[in-house]
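hiii so um. not sure if this is the right channel but i have a protein structure encoded as tokens and i wanna go backwards to a sequence. like what aa goes where. can anyone help
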């Protein structure tokens, strides 16, 4: 079994140790030491990085029987004494997030009676999954209590107890292993079984901020950031708000209503634009009919349009088909290429059947009624035009 220095002193970042074994697996060096300060991936917390014997530590794995394997970039020999250096910035970040999680989970239990089912410590944000859905008010209450506990700078202590002793304690989170158990106690607030690294006081967490939440598997997934991450998150939001204030020329509390006004104006403008495009299509139809091709049983109007709005294309096709003896094939712009076909009431031409033939020949999907049909065609506009010239007659 490897001696775990981080169990008793999470602030220790340098140490000397003897190499117990060394092997190469998939081209990487796997090193076991007699003692280590490197935390392995475990309990939702990622592994520490740093260097071992001058080689970069790529991974740290918690194996059977408490044996810790260090995956490093270079070879080390059994019996060799090496110096390990833990990346402090990463270690302290994980300490802030993990301690913050204990505080926030305990705060949810105290304010709303809802337990934490799981925890994930990601590279930029952390999440806890709660056993039931919680309201914004419940989230705010838990966040406020959590920050109060941070500001009170309460001691965070490590205790080791037997299974029997643990069974008699009011643990918020019970153990998932047997034997001697490691407990993390936040003074007069939380007591949980945990093997992770934690700050010595709650004050060093800095701040706890909920950054988002969503429904998840019948409960709630809460995203949060602590310490330096909270500062980075604040800076990002500050920059966004500052940019919006400048662009909208409003105070921060008025940003929401200003955006709503812009959205309302945009919807109204889009409606007017569509109406104008439809009117233009109707005007264009009258001009196109004059130049219609006489193909025998009817007059064919073949149109290539720069428009991609299917409603505008349908309006143009319908306006052409309103003229006796006409069949309109309107080809729009887009991927797949939108195509609308319409025929006058006095023409014996099945638009729906023709669109099926078109998509069978050029790829895509579509269909419709004998008087009007539409489709999205995989082929090019040139291929569609060529097919229409050969078959719409």
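sure thing!! here u go:
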């Amino acid at each position: 079994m490897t001696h775990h220095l981080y169990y008793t002193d999470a602030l220790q970042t340098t140490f000397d140790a003897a190499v117990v074994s060394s092997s190469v697996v998939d081209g990487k060096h796997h090193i076991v030491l007699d003692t280590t300060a490197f935390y392995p991936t475990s309990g939702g917390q990622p592994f520490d990085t740093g260097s071992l014997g001058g080689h970069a530590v790529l991974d740290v794995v918690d194996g059977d029987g408490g044996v810790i394997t260090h995956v490093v970039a270079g070879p080390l020999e059994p019996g060799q004494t090496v110096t390990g250096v833990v990346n402090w910035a990463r270690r302290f970040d994980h300490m802030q997030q993990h301690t913050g999680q204990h505080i926030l989970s305990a705060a949810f239990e105290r304010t709303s009676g809802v337990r934490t089912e799981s925890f994930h410590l990601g590279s930029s944000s952390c999440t806890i999954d709660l056993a039931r859905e919680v309201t914004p008010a419940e989230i705010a209450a838990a966040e406020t209590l959590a920050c109060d506990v941070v500001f009170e700078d309460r001691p965070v202590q490590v205790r080791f107890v037997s299974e029997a002793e643990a069974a008699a304690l009011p643990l918020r989170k019970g153990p998932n292993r047997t034997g001697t158990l490691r407990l993390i106690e936040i003074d007069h607030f939380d007591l949980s079984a945990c093997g992770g690294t934690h700050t010595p006081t709650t004050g060093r967490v800095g701040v706890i901020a909920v950054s988002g939440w969503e429904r998840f598997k019948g409960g709630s997934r809460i995203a949060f950031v602590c310490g330096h991450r909270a500062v980075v998150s604040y800076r990002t939001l500050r920059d966004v708000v500052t940019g919006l204030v400048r662009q909208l020329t409003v105070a921060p509390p008025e940003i929401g209503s200003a955006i709503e006004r812009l959205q309302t104006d945009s919807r109204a403008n889009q409606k007017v634009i569509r109406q104008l495009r439809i009117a233009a299509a109707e005007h264009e139809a009258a001009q196109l009919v004059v130049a219609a091709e006489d193909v025998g049983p009817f007059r064919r109007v073949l149109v290539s349009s720069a428009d991609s709005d299917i409603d505008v294309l349908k309006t143009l096709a319908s306006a052409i088909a309103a003229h006796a003896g006409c069949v309109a094939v309107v080809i729009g712009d887009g991927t797949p290429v939108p195509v609308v076909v319409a025929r006058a009431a006095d023409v014996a031409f099945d638009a729906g059947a023709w669109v099926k033939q078109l998509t069978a020949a050029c790829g895509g999907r579509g269909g419709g009624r004998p008087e009007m049909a539409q489709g999205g065609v995989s082929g090019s506009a040139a291929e569609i035009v060529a097919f229409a010239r050969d078959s719409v007659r």
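oh and The two ends are 86 Å apart (CA to CA).
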